[in-house]
Amino acid sequence: MGLIDKLKNMFRKAPEPEKAPEAPAKPENTRQKKACKACGKMFSYDPSWEFIPNYCKDCKQKFMKEKEEKQRAGAPRKIKRKCKECGNFFTFPNTLEHYPSYCPNCRKRHKEAQKAKYSRKKETQQAAQKDSPKEPKKGSPKGSKG
After folding, report:
1. What is the pLDDT of residues 63-118, one digit of tens each?
2. Which residues lie closer than 8 Å to 30 by C-beta, 6 or more apart?
3. 52 with 36: CB under 8 angstroms?
């Protein structure tokens, strides 16, 4: 019976799971303190960051607002582009919502061509409607109420 007892004991014991190596414990306070270059206020940062800030959040927001105001207040920049049609370069202000693809001369011609194309399409639709006989609407005839 010794062999049977050994087999029973083998199957009774669950195999022990292998323990994963433990990660090194991080110290709780890894953040470091630094003084803001603008106001001197102390702020904390994590040394593992790729970019270590020089300014506190308040100063950074103030600088961003000032930068935005300067960009808005400044004269609009001129953007130079090549015309799709004639290949000449032309300039336009960056304040436009959509940048043009054509120079002013080609833009006029292109706009007129688009108008003509649209008006021809509209005329052909109107002519087709005039030529086709009108069919009465299906449903109850006019005047009869049921």
Report:
1. 999 988 887 777 777 889 999 989 999 998 888 888 889 999 999 998 898 888 88
2. 46, 47, 48
3. no
Phi, psi of 45, deg, nearest 5: -145, 160
- Count other Cβ atoms within 10 Å, centred on residue 56: 20
Helices (H) and strands (E) in the chain, counts: 3, 4
Higher pLDDT, 71 or 61: 61
Whether the CA torsion 103, 107, 113, 117 is positive or negative: it is: positive
Q: Where are the domains of the chain?
A: 30-74, 76-127
Q: Which residue is listed with tokens 């960056």?
A: 94
Amino acid identity for residue 86 in this structure = C
Closest alpha carbon to 49 in 27, 30, 29: 30
